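User: I'm writing a short methods note and want a consistent example. For Transglycosylase SLT domain-containing protein, I'll paste the sequence; you return only the structure tokens, no commentary, since I'll be parsing the reply automatically.
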Amino acid sequence: MNRSLLRRIASPKKVLTGAAVAATAAGALLAAAPAQAASEASQAQAIAKKMIGDSAQYTCFSNIVDHESDWNINATNASSGAYGLVQALPGSKMASAGSDWKTNAATQIKWGVDYMKDRYGSPCGAWNFWQANNWY
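Assistant:
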């Protein structure tokens, strides 16, 4: 538990015990989760911008990732099992870009860009197909 949370829980102004401590700690953890997810998403976006370079191609790539996973590297489609930023099916296909495909945004981005280039010519080709079909 971090020190600031401990100070809030054990504050001399308000002494919390038992369930109140657990509820306060759980609330703090739940409040931190969206911030952590947003930070991870912005890190992944920065990596993609650097890797892709061309702003138009990045925008197309970003549009797909926004729809497919909302920039969540752990996103899993419950019905198909598609995984990651670009929803590879199966996710293990991304191992061709690196053994850390489950946890590394750069590996998922590399695989996704290569897939889009191979199949659609570019991320914008993939985005054009996505817009027409709601999948790519």
